[in-house]
């Protein structure tokens, strides 16, 4: 098992079996461990980790309604996003924002990433990212 990250989001899901099928079969995450009696699993993809647990009332802070992930998107950085993108297309899974290259300013540099966004079955926004490196910002930019 990977070492646990210092921050691991735990997503409440409406149906653990449907979410596991999505994350394992389509997105190619793997199960690090699970607690079947709690309908819980810790999943990983490269160095990324998430926990999913079927809604049970224990952690609720309010009424959940679709899309569950309003106001947040999870950036998942991996070496090559193309195989996952192709798998989504193969499964006819809807793409929220199609694959594109974007450059973002970070102080005196710009960082490039190839990325696309999808929503998981419960409406959590997932942004798959491939690092394209960085460049210095030109004086005129």
UniProtKB/TrEMBL annotation:
Superkingdom: Bacteria
Pfam families for the chain: Glyoxalase
VOC domain location: 3-131
Transmembrane segments: none
Alphabetical keyword list: Antibiotic resistance
One GO term of the biological process aspect: response to antibiotic
Zinc-finger found in the keyword field: no
Record-stated family: Belongs to the bleomycin resistance protein family.
Protein name, per record: Bleomycin resistance protein
Organism: Guptibacillus hwajinpoensis
């Amino acid at each position: 098992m990977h070492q646990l990250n210092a921050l691991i989001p735990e997503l409440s899901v409406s149906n653990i079996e449907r979410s596991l099928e999505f994350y394992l079969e389509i997105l190619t995450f793997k199960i690090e461990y699970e607690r079947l009696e709690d309908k819980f699993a810790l999943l990983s993809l490269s160095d990324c980790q998430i926990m999913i647990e079927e809604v049970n009332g224990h952690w609720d802070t309010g009424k959940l309604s679709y899309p569950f992930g309003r106001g947040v998107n999870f950036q998942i950085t991996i070496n090559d996003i193309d195989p996952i993108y192709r798998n989504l297309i193969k499964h006819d899974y809807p793409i929220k924002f199609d694959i594109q290259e974007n450059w973002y300013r970070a102080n005196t540099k710009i960082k490039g990433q190839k990325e696309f966004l999808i929503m998981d079955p419960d409406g959590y926004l997932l942004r798959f990212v491939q690092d394209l490196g960085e460049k210095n910002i030109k004086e005129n930019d």
